[in-house]
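#lab-general

N.A. 3:47 PM
ok so I finally got the sequence cleaned up, no stray characters, all 187 residues accounted for. can someone with queue access submit it? mine expired

B.Y. 3:52 PM
send it over

N.A. 3:53 PM
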Amino acid sequence: MIRFLAAATTALILTGAAVAGTEVKFAPFSGISIHSGGHVILRHGTVQRVTVVKGDLGKADLHITGGNTLDISPCKTWCWHVGYFEVEIVSPKIDNVVAHSGGALRASGEFPKQASLHLTAHSGGAIETLAIPVDNVTALAHSGGAIQLKVLSSLEATAHSGGAISYTGNPPHLSTQSHSGGSISKD
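B.Y. 4:20 PM
back already:
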């Protein structure tokens, strides 16, 4: 029985299949890019940590790009029927989020007020950061992308080609542009 368990554990490690709670180490980052149907749960914490919650880490592609952005895809090449892939990120601060091609990010739990945040969702990407109170937000949604956010002081929002942005808060500085089927609304 012990040999069977050892062989099964070795096979699991060699194939890269993620066991719930598999932590992946990265250099510090302040941006997140999620795509190809992957899902991210973002939580606040003093120590940055990335944990694969569900999915096959052996098929996934997680790497730092541009020096400070964690790029997350459930697949290394073509993402066709790769299955559900979910990552939990705990971080003291994130200042840039991009979700596209069906990728989704949701902030959960309590966050301290943040000075600024840049959000971009397109091609079916979805971002929900209602848990993060932010002074200054820049948001862009297009091609079916959707963003929900909480803004305190200033919002610069652009939505077009079926993109949708909804926000909570009463920012004294509001600059919005919507066209070609884009929408921006206050919740």
